[in-house]
Amino acid sequence: MPTTESAGNDQLFVLTAVLLTPAQFPSVLGDDYPEVCAGLGLEPYAEGYGLVLGQDGDGARWTVATEDVSLVACAIAAWDCGMEYDLSPGESSIVGALPGWPLALAVAAPEVPSPHDPEPQEGDPAPLTPPDAEAWGPAQRRLGADEIAMQWAVWREQVDGDDAFAEPGDEAHQGVRRVLEEARAYVTDPPPPGRVRSSFAAGEARTLRVDGPGWSMVARTDDIAFVLLDEEPGEVHPVGRGPELPGLLSSLDELAVRPV
Description:
Structural class: alpha+beta
Number of domains: 2
Number of helices: 6
Number of strands: 10
Region (Disordered): 110-137
Protein name: Integral membrane protein
Radius of gyration: 20 Å
Distance between the termini: 28 Å
Organism: Streptomyces auratus AGR0001
């Protein structure tokens, strides 16, 4: 298992790592990049961070934030390919060692005690804890949008072909109309970084992820959109392409942040 060094030079057994940048961050933690950074007590620098999650020799949970984003990105890419990678950020790149984990992990380091929060020291922040993703709310809504983005073809098959090119949104549904109006407002009044993100899709299309207060939208620039609302647990609303959605999606894609 790869290891790194914490801010206190105590060995950390690395379990996983994630990127925290305006274009890529764990959606479950917030609707935009500054919100996620604030929850972790980090400044929302444009260059972003890498978050390294692991356990110390006593089994305590720690999250190490490093400015060496490229190193963490290389490690994640190697692990995704099934390759080993010793993730060891230089001490000068580490901006903080935070107690706890912001994400739920189902793995643990071998030959150390079970994961637990470290003993609090005077002046230490409260340990990070994962959002409650069991009960429907913002975290679960964002996780649902993540799932649609990853399983687009499966969700798209559930929408009848004729409906896909109907008027954009159910005009009788006030929540969907509100989402479309707020998304249109982003075009003239850009939201905080990360509220609109663009990633690769099939062909020349892009996958758009748009979030706002109480809602998430997932769309393909060449297709339709899906909307999820905090006030409607588990409901997913297809938004037909119609005459207006293509232009809206194109405009959102132009202002979206993209992975480097």
